[in-house]
Amino acid sequence: METVRTVADLRAAVKGWRQEGHSIGLVPTMGALHPGHMALVKASLEATTRTIATIFVNPKQFGPAEDLDSYPRHEAADSELLAAAGVDLLFAPSVPEMYGDDFATGVHIDGLGDIFEGSARPGFFDGVATVVAKLLCQAAADSAFFGEKDYQQLLVIRRMAQDLNIPTAIEGVPTVREADGLAMSSRNAYLTAAERATAPMLFKVIADIATRLAAGGGAADLSQEGLGRLIDAGFTCVDYLAVVDGETLAPATRGRPARVLVAARLGQARLIDNVAA
Amino acid sequence: METVRTVADLRAAVKGWRQEGHSIGLVPTMGALHPGHMALVKASLEATTRTIATIFVNPKQFGPAEDLDSYPRHEAADSELLAAAGVDLLFAPSVPEMYGDDFATGVHIDGLGDIFEGSARPGFFDGVATVVAKLLCQAAADSAFFGEKDYQQLLVIRRMAQDLNIPTAIEGVPTVREADGLAMSSRNAYLTAAERATAPMLFKVIADIATRLAAGGGAADLSQEGLGRLIDAGFTCVDYLAVVDGETLAPATRGRPARVLVAARLGQARLIDNVAA
Question: Is the ipTM of this complex over 0.85?
Fold first, then answer.
C-alpha cells in the first residue's frame, strides 16, 4: 500500500487506475481505526477494484471546546491495519494541504444539518460537509463508504453529494459493536473503566425502544422512559433521545422507516448511537 | 447543436466525448445572450474541442426584491446564437432538475463573498457559488469561462472551485463593451433612453481613476471625486466605488495588481463595472 500526502499524487494514482478500467472506492476516516472503520474498508473492497482510505483529523469539524488536540492519532498502526486489509492507497494529507491560508469556503446543509448533532455541536456538520465535499472531488471515486454509527452525518453527506451533483455514490455501512453492544468509536478510549461498564446501556435503551415501537408502543412515552433509564444508569446529560424518520429525521410517522437516535454524556465522554425502528 | 435538459443527458454527452479524447469547456449563463457571453463561447471554442453552454436563470442568486420574474428569457434566440457560434451542446435545465424539493445545500465563501456585491445583495454569492458548484460537478469540464464584467463573482467562483478541489480551471474573459464604453449586460435592457445615455459615465469614471492612479494619484481622493461625478451625472446612489487588490479585494497596495470596482443605481437599474489599475 502506497501512502500519498498531496492531492496531486492522489489524482495521479486515480488517473492511472481509471486508465486501467478500475472502479474506485473511498473510505474517509480520521484515523484511530477500529473494527467499525475496517467494516467500511471491507465494504469498499467488495464493491470496487481499488480502495483508497484517507486519514485526516479535520479541524473544521471540531468546536473550540472540543478535543481536536487530544483526538487520538496513530498513523503508523492505522497504516499497518489498512495495508493488511488490502487497501490500495492511503491518502493522509496535512492540514495546509487541505486548507491553504486563503481557504474561505463552507458548505452548509439547511435543516438536516441544523438539528440533533448540528444543534449540539454548532459548525460540526459544516465542517464535515466541507471536508467530505473536498475529499469526494479530490478522489473522484465511484463510491464512498460511511458508517451508520454517525447516522445523521451519513444523511448530511448523502444530501450534500446529491445536491452538489458530486458523482460519487454515498454508501452506508452498519454499525460495528462490541460484544456488549457498545458501538465502536475512537472516542470510547476516553471512557474510564466504570464508564465503560455503563456505556452499553446506551444501545440497550434504544434497542429496547425499537423493539417496543414494533410492538405498538408510543414514541413519546418510550423516549421519556428511556431518558430516565439513561440518567438512572449514570449518564449525566442526554442531549437528545428521539424516534425520527429514517430519511428526513423529522418526527417519525407510522408506515415509514424510522430511526432511534441518542446522544448522551458519560463523564468526559459524549456518546452517540442509533438503531433502525 | 443538441439541447439537453437533464443532468443524466448532459453526463451521457460528456462521457461520450471523454471516450473520444475531447477536451471540454463550459460556459454557464443565465441566457439573454449578448456579445459578452459570445466572447466566453469564443474563448471556450479556442481552448477546448467541445463546448457546452448552459442557460439557467438561477433563483438562488436573486433576492426577494430582485428581478427573478422579469429577468429577460428568450431561449429560442439564445439557442440560435449558440448554434451559429459553434457550441456543441446546450444544457438548459428546469428549476426542479437543479433544485429538487429536498434540496438543502448552500456554499458560502467567507470574506470575499461578504463584501461589495455580497453586502449589497445578501445571499447573492451563496446562490452563485452553489449553482456553479453544481454545474461544474455536473459537466466535469476541463475549463469553465466567466466574464470579468462580474469581477468579484469570478474571484468567488475561482476560490470556491479551488477550495472544494473541483478539477475545472476557472478562466476569466475580458469585459465586452459597447462603442461608448458601457459594459454589456443583460440588465442594460432595463435602461430608459435617457439612462442609456448617462450609463457610459460609469466606465468613464473608473477608467479615469485607473489612468490617474497610474500617474501617481491617491486612491481615496480619486474615489471620492469619482463618486461626485457619478452623482452629478444622474446616478441616484453609488453602492461602492473602490480601488482594491486584484486578487483579494482588500484595499489596494502599491506594487500589486489593483482593480477599480463600482456599483451604482440609475433609475430602476443597478449597474456594475470594473477595470484593472
Answer: yes
The full set of domains in chain A, from first to last, is: 2-173 (3.40.50.620), 186-276 (3.30.1300.10)
C-alpha to C-alpha distance for A32 and A190, rounded to whole angstroms: 12
Alpha helices in B20-88 (DSSP H): 35-47, 75-85
Is A138 an 8 Å CB contact of chain B?
yes
Which of the residues B34, B37, B74, B108 is marked catalytic? B37
Question: Are the C-beta atoms of B206 and B260 separated by less than 8 Å?
Answer: yes
CA–CA min distance A107, chain B (Å) = 5
Q: Which residues in chain A touch residue B161, judged by CB atoms under 8 angstroms apart? A: none
pLDDT under 70 in chain A at which residues? none
Angle between helices A35-47 and A75-85 (to 10 degrees): 40
Contact status of B109 with chain A (Cβ, < 8 Å): yes
Summary mean pLDDT of chain B: 97
**Least CB-CB distance to B105: which of A11, A137, A159?**
A159
- Nearest residue, CB atoms, A137 vs list B104, B159, B167: B167
The answer to whether A140 contacts B167, with C-beta atoms less than 8 Å apart, is yes
CA dist., res. B16 & res. B10, Å (int): 10
Residue A220 CA to residue A222 CA, distance in Å, equals 6
Q: Which residues pair with A101 in a beta bridge?
A: none
pLDDT, tens digit, 9 for 90 and up, residues B231-241: 999 999 999 99
Separation of first and last alpha carbons in chain B = 40
B177-188 residue pLDDT tens: 999 999 999 999
Q: State how far the alpha carbon of A117 is from the alpha carbons of A42, A67, A225, A264, B42, in Å.
A: 27, 16, 21, 11, 48
> Quick one: pLDDT at residue A203?
98
Report pLDDT for A104: 98
